[in-house]
């Protein structure tokens, strides 16, 4: 996940709340 966020493909992600808890939270990614 960290490698994706640092990549160029994640350039459109700005001011997002991303939960890195292994998918245990049923919220929005």
SS-based class: little secondary structure
What about the largest sheet? Answer: none
User: How many E-type strands?
Assistant: 0
SSE run? H
Write down the Rg. 10 Å
In what range is the share of β-strand residues?
under 5%
Unreliable stretches (pLDDT < 50, length at least 5) are none
Helix content: 10-25%
Distance between the termini: 12 Å
Model description:
This protein is mostly loops and 29 residues long. It is built from one helix and no strands. 0% of the residues are buried. The model has no long low-confidence stretch (mean pLDDT 57).
Summarize the structure.
This protein has one helix at residues 2-5. It has 29 residues and is largely without helices or strands.
List the SSEs and their pairings.
Elements: H1 2-5
Key structural traits:
single chain; about 30 residues; little secondary structure; 1 helix; about 15% helix
């Amino acid at each position: 996940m960290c490698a994706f966020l640092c990549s160029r493909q994640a350039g459109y992600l700005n001011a997002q709340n991303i939960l890195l808890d292994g998918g245990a939270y049923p919220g929005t990614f």
